[in-house]
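Replying to the earlier thread about multi-chain prediction with a worked example.

Input:
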Amino acid sequence: MTTAANPRPGPDDPHHIGILLFDGVEELDAIGPWEVLSWWTRSYPGDGYTASTFSADGRSVTCNKGLVVQPHHSRDDMPEMAVLVHPGGDTRALGADDEHLAWLRKQRPVVPLLTSVCTGSLVYAKAGLLRERPATTYWGALGGLTENDPTIEVRPEARWVDDGDVITAAGVSAGIDMALHLVVRLAGADRAREVRRGIQYDPEPPI
Amino acid sequence: MTTAANPRPGPDDPHHIGILLFDGVEELDAIGPWEVLSWWTRSYPGDGYTASTFSADGRSVTCNKGLVVQPHHSRDDMPEMAVLVHPGGDTRALGADDEHLAWLRKQRPVVPLLTSVCTGSLVYAKAGLLRERPATTYWGALGGLTENDPTIEVRPEARWVDDGDVITAAGVSAGIDMALHLVVRLAGADRAREVRRGIQYDPEPPI
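Result:
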């Protein structure tokens, strides 16, 4: 099942999902969605989507808690994207990096769906991509959205905000829920249920 | 707050938590606990615990869905461990690796607390570490526990099974819940609540 807004991609459509990695990326911001999306795309190749990770220069990144991860691609050798996942973490450098912000603005007309996890949305806000849109972010960074762009309608209670061609998620672990929502949009609820079962996502926080 | 069973470690006690990485490790099996435990230990160093990842030879591993991760340590330069976290994924090679199983058996008398996520418990079972104990694993691998050791009391419905000096968790995402349970045991429920809030772990699966 696919929705009218997100038809199954044809052979010439981009159908690749790219997860951005950068120095300071919060580990679970990126790997939560990666687990969901790689499980989906590798278990069900007939759905027509693929997923990979990339960094600006293709070199390994040191995540926010110290894990070193090697991306699959650089920005330049990344397949054309149907979906960009922009995680958060320590995004201060990215938010002050004019070259990164210019690259993001260039993605807007060519990438149909921009998504973020946690403080990834602060970088979108800095790039002007959330203008007059509803959005969310990490609970401790909500003020940063309107500091960067006072036209944003902040939704503090939302686990994720789907505004059509932009989806922003709350902090860290919220990327798992947002990625499952992506599977619902791109391949239907039944498929998303299978992926949820695949990663045995029946959360039972002990406290 | 600490519990009587797990007093705050003294200066001579091991107080390091090691997460094993290996070719075929399921990404979220390892990174879920890493996010919880690195968040805890880096935000609250006064609790006296540290955490790192390691692989047998210290070289990078290719995870089950294709992500390449560089561990902090090799087995040989790993600090003495208070807790071992053994993730799962494609554990067929490990379960047939006599050298790995012998290494695991050597850890039993020196590592006070052995934990696993997903099919990590199948490797513990192969090593004979779950003899006559209650345990769990990934829903799709429950039969593997008793195939490896018919004395194991399988608990298919448990998110994790705490048997004192061994904790086994269910599949993939269950490692997050098990790691939070570890924080409860080692530093108390209040601290675990802070870590849960830190990673905004208020799950809302969309389906």
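The two ends of chain B are 37 Å apart (CA to CA).

Feel free to reuse this layout for your own posts.
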